[in-house]
Hints:
By secondary structure, the chain is an alpha+beta fold. The protein has 14 helices and 18 strands.
Amino acid sequence: MFExxxxxxxxxxxxVYLLYLSVFTLSPxxxxxxxxxSLLDLVAxxxxxxxxxxxxxxxxxxxxxxxxxxxxxxxxSLPGVRTYRFVGKLFLAGAxxxxxxxxxxxxxxxxxxxxxxxxxVLNVVGGITGALISMWLYAPISRSVYRWWLNLQASPMLLGxxxxxxxxxxxxxxxxxxxxxxxxNWDPNFTLQIGNEGTLDRPWLGSMFLLAMYDRAxxxxxxxxxxxxxxxxxxxxxxxxxxxxxxxxxxxGGGTVVHDRSSWDMPLDLQIRDMDHIKWLHPNGIELLTNTxxxxxxxxxxxxxxxxxxxxALTLEVWISPAHIDQKGPARIVxxxxxSEARNLTLGQAKRNIVSRIRTPVSGPNGTRPQLQTxxxxxxxxxxxxxxxxxxxxxxxxxxxxxxxxxxxxDRTYLLRVFEAFLGWKYLWIYWFVVLSPLGILSYLFxxxxxxxxxxxxxxxxxxxxxxxxxxxxxxxxxxxxxxxVIPFLIGSAIVLxxxxxxxxxxxxVHAV
Length: 513
């Protein structure tokens, strides 16, 4: 009887684990497939087969191994697999992990993710590690968990544990942290892009006549100087040169390369992806006619290693003429980023308005908390000078030489935002899982202990979890008059529900022993 109950528990946990694994590896579920390209083109473009382990960040190595250890442990513990001998279990676990991991990596080809052979290898290492742990320690681990579960459910301190946990959650999530407004969390692996993201899902159409980036915030007089120099800047004599990091004036008139004409360090030249999607203009400029991208082939280390990041100050300047005033996404005019969810810096168009995103520990990896966005329909189809500066937590937007709007970065943030800023929003569900699963487990065990009926315990537990989550997620935003984001609340609510239902099923399996 004990064995049958234990098998039921393993099956439940394995199914829940597979659900979380799919969410983790396939989020944010945004399809980016270009139907004009074959699957082989997609593999050649996005599937990384050249990376080596010593170039992979430690966090990626650790997370890819750790993520599949539960897979190997639970898979080997399944009734159909446990009958195999030692070598057979290892082979079957490794082959299954390889097949599952490869399938998930192939699915990422159609999402704003970049699959890699290294990820598959690391996942297999994690799966085999979990299988070895299961074969050696499954029996003592399962018996210890069984005894712990029964002791926890029968504990007279269960209500105290639940109350203390709720107080702790609310305490750490409503007390703000003070973070810097610097570029300390910028990523050195991003490329510089014109007219799109690397995932080709945020195209901007129009003409660009000049692009410049400085490692300092230009003064108002310097901004006016560059505006008066005009969009046809064949020479630098009439423009500000101090602090210039990259400079593209599009004077070449042809070819597949846009040359960086700044004098500082090695040039950061950009490559035109599709020549038939662009048009060179005379005497200077380039027009993006349809979905394409102009980007650096390698990470923009010139920008990352400049004084721009060290000073945490910058100026981004463009002369542009949008092809359409209804482009949205926002459509990426200039982006120093990896994909639609991770960037150091982006200037975009949202219909008739400008959107600027700058990555800091406060604004997060996508640069959206906060982001500067105009609301007065300033863009037209005419040639316009758009320039943003950032220094000491203050971002300023200039249009045609004049200050248009400003945005002050408040360095106060909360535990959830700290986590999201350093690891990225795609790991948010892991954070919610860590902090909300114990809440669902303790709530269900308490109500099941006192109410007896499992259905009542499920509803009461979910209600407590949602209320606590609402306070954690919404109260800090209401106090500081920030926009309320429903998505994290929905993710947290789903995890509360899942943890409660999983606890109910496990509790039933345990008592069937």
